[in-house]
Write a structure and sequence with these properties.
The structure is a homodimer. By secondary structure, the first copy, chain A, is mainly α. Chain A has two domains: about 55 residues, Arc Repressor Mutant, subunit A (Orthogonal Bundle); about 130 residues, Tetracycline Repressor, domain 2, CATH 1.10.357. Chain A is about 70% helix and about 0% strand. The first copy, chain A, contains nine helices and no strands. Chain A binds a DNA duplex (19 and 19 nucleotides) through helix 1, helix 2 and helix 3.
Chain lengths: ~190, ~190
DNA sequence: ACCTGAACACCGTTCAAGT
DNA sequence: ACCTGAACACCGTTCAAGT
């Protein structure tokens, strides 16, 4: 039998939570590639303790995002069932862009994880792509997006825009999203005409 | 009097060129954030020699890009004088995206340099933005792009797409460029209708 | 069961000493 | 005028030793 379900030691639980809290702070300040030694230092634990709880950076980031992703993905599934597929797609893209920009460099992590099935973040990327795919399919059925648009296009836009949001300027990144979404529309359905 | 115009020592010149050659190789393999120690090692010089010639990473990258940028920017100026402003804009964007993707992480360097007037790459970013501005102005006069489009939008698209090209997939990044350029068009002028 | 911190390998950057 | 490489500060990651 494994130890699943076993109550963890009280100090271990506290260490784990301290590390998560400080990792969030360090990643917000210095990006998702921020120093793990500084995380351990700020959390008041030895570096080995950090590695004991989170063997890789992907696992640590994955633990930090777990809750936020659960909420985000559940909401994404609900969007799929809505009645305005165009607005659903736009709202989804904007929300994920904002989320992905919370840590500078998170888009790079997602890019690496999408291509690496071993990464702890791979399932998250797959889920994100799947939701995009569903939203695109609904919009395609409604005839509001170009017929050649795919879920992958949405994933690329979201990550590229998140990169721009964190590295260049939030406002400019939002403009980029707006222009590109307009480019996603089916010919002749643009709002401006 | 400064030593400008003075003939550099033969060994110094060779070291400089060796460092440039190996830096290009290392940056192509490992990105623009690749190890400078490995560059020096591969070039057969001490680390201090590298720093003597190139005091910062920006200076080194700037020296590597100088020629390519001269060619690129001269061509960009010529594009401005052409007779099809829409094609000119598209060709410019696609060429710069491909260029910026030669070193993974170069878009990040450009993003940092655009915001930092002290960076050796800042003038390059300013020049890139200025050419984009001129191309957008010409396209706006011709009525082929939305009136609210700016040169900054072009800069953002180019860097975000270069990021996507290097981190995700070249083909997908090109699709993103295509969609976004379509979003740049003035209402009612899309090719597909 | 978990924590500690030394150990190893690597890197960026500076600078006194050489030629 | 230029080159060298030791020195310092920092980091990622592992693992034997402790409790």
């Amino acid at each position: 039998m494994s130890s699943i379900g076993r109550r963890p030691r009280a100090d271990a639980l506290r260490n784990r939570q301290q590390v998560l809290a400080e990792a969030d702070a360090v990643f917000r300040e210095h990006g998702a590639a921020g120093s793990l030694e500084s995380v351990a230092r700020r959390a008041g634990v030895a570096i080995g303790t950090l590695y004991g709880h989170f063997p890789t950076r992907h696992v640590l980031v994955g633990a930090l995002l777990r809750e936020r992703h659960d909420t985000l993905f559940t909401w994404g599934d609900e969007l799929t069932a809505g009645d305005d597929p165009w607005d659903a797609l736009g709202n989804w893209v904007r929300a994920v862009v904002e989320h992905t920009a919370t840590y500078r460099g998170l888009a790079d992590l997602f890019a690496a994880s999408a291509a690496d099935a071993e990464s702890e973040l791979h399932v998250d990327c797959a889920r994100m792509t799947a939701i995009g795919e569903a939203l695109v399919a609904a919009a395609r059925n409604a005839g509001v997006v170009r017929p050649d648009l795919g879920g992958e296009d949405v994933f690329v836009l979201m990550n590229a825009a998140a990169w721009a949001r964190a590295q260049l300027s939030p406002a400019e990144a939002d403009r980029l999203v707006g222009f590109t979404l307009d480019g996603f529309r089916a010919s002749g359905t643009r709002s401006g005409r």
